[in-house]
Amino acid sequence: MFKTIKVFGGPDMKLRTYNTGRENLLRKLTMLIAGFATIALLATSCGGSSESTDSAPSQSESSSSPQSSTEEPGSSANEEETAAPSKDLEVADDCPTAGDARDDLFPGVMFFSEAQTRCLTDIDWGDRCDIETGRLKLPVVGAPECFAPFSGDNGGETARGVTEDSITIVYWRWQENDFILNYITGPIAGDDTNADAEASLRGLLQYYETYYETYGRKVNLIFYEGSGNVADPISARADAVKIAEEYDPFMVWNGPNLTNAFEDELVSRGIACLACGPSQQIDFYRENDPLSWTFSMSGEQNTLMGVEYVTKQLAGRTAEYAGDESYHNQERVFGRLYIESGEASVENNQDFENQLEENGVDIVETVSYALDPATLQESAASAISKFKSAGVTSVLFSSDPIAMRDFTREATAQGYFPEWVHIGSVLADTTAFARTYDQEQWANAFGITTLGVGVDPLKAGAPFRYRWFFGEPAPADDSLGVIDPWPATFYPIIQGIGPNLTYDNWREGLNRADPTERRTTSSSFSWGEKGRWPPELEYDFFGNDEVTVFWWDTEAEGRDETDAVGVGMYQYADAGLRYLWGEFPTEPIDLFNAATAVDQYDEPPPGQEIPEYEPLQPSE
């Protein structure tokens, strides 16, 4: 005997986190390439930009709303309302815990712990579920709960690009011979081809569709190679038009990372974008709600983190970590160095400096630069001269990964050895790039980063999971960690939404989903209204919510993000302790002390052990 209770939209989606900081690092490396941690994004984070990869990497949720299958492209997404439940869910008669049953599940959704709460004992959870734990049989920390297999009518064409048995997704990929990208990523370039990337992505889809509930649908993947370089707005817009008119997808993953034209065109046509361009100002996401989300922090969020770190940890104290010992007894004098890539970068930097000033912190010299190989050396010489003349002891920088080679070499040439304080840069916080900087200077580098402590990719993360599932490495073994964030985000979300897949339900599902777990090896991600940011910054369209403090150790040996063994490693302070906005302490965080820091893990750390299972056969 059963009785019924009414339920009203919204899944309990405990989205799996990106399981290793190392994957986070690798993801961050090519997030630049992948489009959510980009040089242009530097313009929107404290005057520079930033993910992580990573990101990232921690598993993301995203938000989506309106655009039913009957709407014309470009019609207002906000005309559609979140679907109410279409049926009642059962609760066992005389169930003693029935009063604790959730009332916010999407129709057709049931997960293991909720079934127990409702005393539902006749559900066949299938081979993918470990009924002892109620979680999927996956080799990941904090695996997702099992969701009940679905049968029945899934609603068919619930949204554009969605049918009874498919969801059309376009994955954009840069050209292999993109000279701009090759210039930026030269020090960490791998040998993965686009064919390797496509084969690996299709393999990841098999992995997720074998374990996650997709309500009778599979992803119809269109792998699309861009027609121009990552900075060309004309080819980017043309690509978006072609994708919209020829494929009409539910969503696009990735995009050219140095122009907003691709994303702008897609959302103007009513097509959802998940991290398919450099981060934009928050007003863009609000105006196009619910069609655009990203993995990295927003410029405003990066500013808040940077200001809090500087005011609580650095201001009013001596420049004890500078290379010039004469600075050690001086109160810090701050300079600002940032990449200028457009009006947004200037505005965000000004906001950063204004907030510092409101907190009693002055910037005595500000220098911006452009990432132009023809002028970079000249810009470096001028900047260092200005900082030195102004008596700057501590340079707060937000940079691309290339320019710091020139700035640090020039600083040494001019006999200038300040503290280099990392605030919101892209890829300059990776060991692979940091080893290319002047080491005499970088011995004095520290700051904040969204990255987590790395774990051997053969022991955890996307490369490990791929090898476990297929019995062999991924074809794109160098870049799998930066391809995985899209499907790793998408499948947990649609699993929690249920069969009625719409943009509205996508958005609401993200809003109701719990933040990903907090670990030293990865960042915690969330979207929507979680109370992690000031009220004026929520609803939050940006995934990453945490940073950690790190410093450069010139003597440590280990593997970088490309698996190259060498000398010089980033160390994560306080064993990688991570901070949300508002959590930075006022007591000094211990820096340049290897005894209290960690650089990477050879094995997952205690409490983050990987469970052992035999893989299921890939779904066809």
In short:
The protein is α/β, with parallel strands linked by helices and 620 residues long.
Beta fraction of the residues? 5-15%
| SS-based class | alpha/beta
Determine the fraction of residues in helical runs and give it as a percent range: 25-40%
Mean pLDDT: 85
**Count of helical regions:** 18
- Shape call: globular
User: Main beta sheet, described?
Assistant: 8 strands, mixed
Rg, alpha carbons: 24 Å
Question: Could you tell me the number of beta strands?
Answer: 19
Described by its quaternary structure, the protein is single chain
**Cα-to-Cα separation, first versus last residue:** 38 Å
Describe the protein's architecture and organization.
By secondary structure, the protein is an alpha/beta fold. The chain is built from 18 helices and 19 strands. Strands 10, 11, 12, 13, 14, 16, 17 and 18 form an 8-stranded mixed β-sheet that branches. Strands 6-5-7-8-9 form a 5-stranded parallel β-sheet, with helices on both faces. Helix 12 links the parallel strand 12 and strand 13. The protein is globular.
